[in-house]
Design a protein that fits this description.
about 80% helix
Length: about 200
């Protein structure tokens, strides 16, 4: 243990680091519990309008997808080994930040926004889901089955298309949301690629 104020700060940071590492390793268990729980809530809650119901279902749908995708770290290993030739393009921390703060955050924000009559963020969430599904589906031609494919086809495509069809947003809003969804996925791929190039140079 270090002496003085610096040592005290390090002592305080260590448990938080350990908790963060534990959460990063085990976040999928939250999806395993919360996915089914959220999925049955519409049967218990007061009746929702169709657009709000579809937005509500974004979160459990993504959690079911994440279970297929990330069980036993399958997606990260698949990307690192099959897509990037054995280089660690995705770390466990990167997978956590993409799937929890970003994905769950967007879906939660979409529902909250819809509760106040603002559906623009929901449109982005549906396009994020659709673009994700397209990437998984197109991946068949290069890699065959990839982790997350089944739920992309049977859940993501129908749910995202239903959400987009029932949306009353103008065309320009659709185009902006689609553009942001494509850019978002491009940034994730760009992060992974830049990491691969950096590691190969090292």
């Amino acid at each position: 243990m270090k002496a003085g104020p610096e040592g005290s700060m390090e002592d305080l940071k260590s448990p938080f680091r350990e908790m963060a590492a534990l959460f990063i390793r085990n976040w999928l268990w939250i999806a395993i519990v919360m996915g089914p729980a959220l999925g049955i809530l519409p049967l218990i809650l007061p009746k929702m309008s169709v657009p709000v119901l579809l937005i509500f279902l974004l979160s459990p749908a993504y959690m079911f997808h994440q279970i297929e995708e990330h069980w036993r770290d399958r997606f990260r290993l698949f990307v690192n080994q099959r897509v990037f030739g054995g280089v660690e393009a995705l770390t466990p921390a990167a997978v956590f930040w993409i799937n929890v703060p970003i994905v769950w955050g967007i879906d939660a924000g979409a529902l909250i926004s819809a509760a106040f009559g603002r559906f623009e963020l929901a449109l982005l969430a549906f396009y994020m889901m659709l673009v994700n599904a397209v990437v998984h589906t197109v991946g068949i031609f290069r890699f065959g089955y990839n982790p997350g494919l089944v739920t992309s086809v049977i859940i993501f495509i129908p749910l995202s298309c239903a959400g987009l069809v029932t949306s009353s947003q103008p065309l320009v809003t659709h185009l902006i949301a689609l553009g942001l969804a494509v850019i978002g996925h491009g940034l994730i791929f760009g992060y992974a690629l830049s990491r691969v190039l950096r590691l190969r140079r090292a």
